[in-house]
Amino acid sequence: MSRPVRDAAATVGTGPLDDGSAVAVSSHQLASQAAIATMTAGGNAVDAAVAANAVLGVVLPDTCGPGGDLFALIHTPGDQVPAALNASGRAGAGASAQRLRDAGHTVVPVRSRDSITVPGCVDGWEALVGRFGALSLADDLATAVGLASDGFPVSNELAASLARLEPTIGGQPSAAPLFPEQRPPLPGDIMTRPLLAETLRAVASGGRGAFYQGPVGRAITDVTDGVITAEDLLRNQSQWIEPLGTETMGLAAWTIPPNSQGWLTLATLRIFELLDPPRDPLDPAYHHALIEAYRSVAWERADMTSDPDTASLDTSSLLDETRLADRAEQIDLALTQRWPTTKALSGGTTYLATRDRTGMAVSLIQSNFRGIGTGLSAGATGVWLQDRGEGFNLRPGHPNELTPGRRPLHTLSPTLWTRDGGAALVLGTRGGDQQPQFLAQVAAHHRWAGLCPEDSQLQPRWSINDITHPEPTVFLEGRFAPGTVSGLTERGHNVAEVGQWEVGWGPVSVISMDPDLRGGADPRVSTSAALWAQ
């Protein structure tokens, strides 16, 4: 039977489950419910992931939606390597780094037509369902269409987000449904999104053509003033690729290779493992090793994460064991050190994990970036356009220079872990730069310290906001033990305590199948939910 949703406290963990259970963990109860309902109706984990993603685009427009990009890892029982989908869009034919340099820009301007790249989400949905789905795309989008048409209760987080965003997006053609009664909604208000419902119905019946060559596509060319052309929108943005993987903590860990920064998560964890720190999360040496392992690779992200067609290093080399061992040897377990700097990126994202009764598992991440993206809508279609173009730079000749047809550096970092042909762990989060930081912490708590997924989520987290600084501040949730805090300070870290539970430091979603089947949602976000059906 399905677990009923009562409140956030009732849905943060599943506890041990029968191996034949279906599980879904996402950042919103309605999305987790949609995933479970889809699997109960005969869909598989892929159908459930698409259904949940579409719902999240309706109820959390400040994090994701069909105007953004998508990455996914899919494991089918018996396969040694998961399938990997890169559905991130490319810069339009009218993109020009030189034009921006001539105008005096040193970076791609935020919330501008030049930061809009072609949305890859809808292409991703079609690719996922076409290759793996047991249901049709129309079936998978039905719940999202219903919620957009009939309404859903506004969460505390969405109400606060829209209040902040109103000055930025209030005048856009798609804004009116987000501000009923010409004001930001209050928590508990019922919101409908009829413009997005119409767009989703068109995609359900007409697929990618209805999106990219329909009203949304025409609006994109208008909004970007031709930076993205109709010809750009004809090009399918999704691509099946080889995942990037390494052996760590007893499992094969997989992620999306560049243009995703996902390799940072796996590199951090392998270096952490090579350091062989204590297995107690209360020990400051444990967190020091994690922090230094991350910093030892994060500094080179800007130069190593780009469109693979123009990468400066073969992606398989990023997780080369000799390379990671060399970084581990440079780390002092008694003292922090200076590392070179890199570029920081923020982000607005959603992540979800599904696992069906057969053992198929999906790790899916989807984003508009910078919250609601550029803050520009594709006309009156309910679609908000991403600003992933901010991941480019304007440095002549750089592999990540803004160039027509090129994919930008992406913060999205899903992971999927396997053992002996079976899925063992599905793990991901939102959080821009912080994604590898949060994922490494939860994975280490679970796989190194031996905590269950729920307890791994409850552990206090650290976050480095400014990875451009050679001696950054390490922010700590206020629940760290005093001895852990003082131990980090003694090792040379600049630490600062923040709130007890930082809402923006997640939500992480996790499904573990090793040693038993469990799901864990992040208590930092009130709408997060881990649900199951037997």
SSE diagram, text form:
Elements: E1 22-26, H1 29-40, H2 45-59, E2 69-75, E3 83-87, H3 97-102, H4 121-132, H5 137-150, E4 152-153, H6 156-169, E5 190-191, H7 194-212, H8 215-223, H9 230-234, E6 239-241, E7 244-248, E8 251-255, H10 263-275, H11 284-298, H12 301-304, H13 321-329, E9 349-355, E10 361-367, E11 415-419, E12 422-429, H14 434-448, H15 453-458, E13 462-463, E14 473-476, H16 482-490, E15 494-497, E16 508-512, E17 518-520, E18 529-533
Parallel strand pairs: 14-15
Antiparallel strand pairs: 1-9, 1-18, 2-3, 2-10, 3-6, 4-5, 7-8, 8-11, 9-10, 11-12, 12-16, 13-14, 16-17
Arithmetic mean pLDDT = 93
* Count of domain modules: 2
Unreliable residue runs:
1-10
Strand content: 15-25%
Concise synopsis of the structure shown:
It is built from 16 helices and 18 strands. The protein has 534 residues and is an alpha+beta fold. The strands form four sheets. Strands 6-3-2-10-9-1-18 form a seven-stranded antiparallel β-sheet, covered by helices on one side. The chain has a six-stranded antiparallel β-sheet with strand order 7-8-11-12-16-17. It has a three-stranded mixed β-sheet with strand order 13-14-15.
Overall description:
This protein folds into 2 domains: 27-240 and 350-391, no CATH class; 241-346 and 413-520, Gamma-glutamyltranspeptidase, large (L) subunit, C-terminal domain (Serum Albumin, Chain A, Domain 1), CATH 1.10.246. Helices cover 33% and strands 16% of the residues. The protein contains 16 helices and 18 strands. It has helices at residues 29-40, 45-59, 97-102, 121-132, 137-150, 156-169, 194-212, 215-223, 230-234, 263-275, 284-298, 301-304, 321-329, 434-448, 453-458, 482-490; strands at 22-26, 69-75, 83-87, 152-153, 190-191, 239-241, 244-248, 251-255, 349-355, 361-367, 415-419, 422-429, 462-463, 473-476, 494-497, 508-512, 518-520, 529-533. The chain has a 7-stranded antiparallel β-sheet, covered by helices on one side. The protein is globular, with a radius of gyration of 21 Å. The termini are close together.
